[in-house]
Every structure is written in structure tokens, then in C-alpha cells.
Amino acid sequence: MILSYGSQRDYDAMSETGASAQDVAAIGDFLAKFTAELAESGELVETQGLTAPVLARRVRLRDGAQVVTDGPFAETEEVLAGYWIVECDGIDRATEIAARLNECPGPQPAAGTVIRPIADWAEDVEH
Which H/E stretch holds residue 100? Predict the structure, then answer.
């Protein structure tokens, strides 16, 4: 799983400071091409972008009671912005794919992208 991160500040910068229609289109075009290439190579399993952190909700159990907090969350600088699940030849290929995301125009989160292998729970339980 290739994870892409952003912050509420990134989302705000795109909408409030007036990112041009060209800027937004450039991001959309890049991501559409990137995803299409993964689909064409047969490596894409699934992908989704997520809404702004301000639309998120955190649910926690605190002292036996459910506590719901609406986003954004001041204590969290960066949040998951989207993900790609790929089936490829290994971590090196996943790293190549993830590195291409850093070429996307627009705000560049400090975290860049993160690669996390998906656990095979049946196999993990046996070990």
C-alpha cells in the first residue's frame, strides 16, 4: 500500500489562496495519468483519494464512553490524503512507484509517501 499524506493547511492553500484552475487541473492530470499507467501495467489493485481533514471524525473510547471529535485535529500535522494498493514485484518496485508521486505538482508534504506491505493475516497468525 502506497500512502500519500497532506495537511489541512495543504487543502486550505489549494482552495483559499486561490490555486488556479490550471494548478488544480495539473494535479488531477498527473494523478489520472499515474493511476492509468499502473492500471495498464496490471499493478493497480485499488486507489482512493480522501476528503480534507476538516471533514474527518475521530472516535475514541475514553473512560468507557465513546468520544467523537470532528476534524481537523490540531495535534496531527499530516493526515492520510489517499492511497494506492499495488501488486508488484516487491518493495523495490513499490518504492519506484511511490517516488513518482513526489513529482506531482502542488503542495509537497514533508512525509512524501509511505510504503506499507499489506499483512497476510492468516500467515501472520501462524508465526
Answer: helix 91-101
Give the HSE-up count for residue 34: Cα atoms under 13 Å, Cβ half-sphere. Answer: 23
DSSP label at residue 118: P
Closest CA to 1 of 101, 106, 71, 69: 101
Helices (H) and strands (E) in the chain — how many of each? Answer: 4, 6
Q: How far is CA 96 from the centre of its chain?
A: 16
Report which of 90, 82, 21 is spatially closest to residue 53, judged by C-alpha positions. Answer: 82
pTM (two decimals): 0.79
Cis peptide bond upstream of 107, omega within 30: no
Q: What is the DSSP letter of 39?
A: H
**What is the tens place of the pLDDT at every residue in 7-52?**
777 777 777 656 777 888 888 899 999 999 999 999 999 999 988 8
Q: Any idea which of 21-35, 88-102, 108-122 has the lowest mean pLDDT?
A: 108-122
Sign of CA dihedral 46, 20, 102, 96: positive
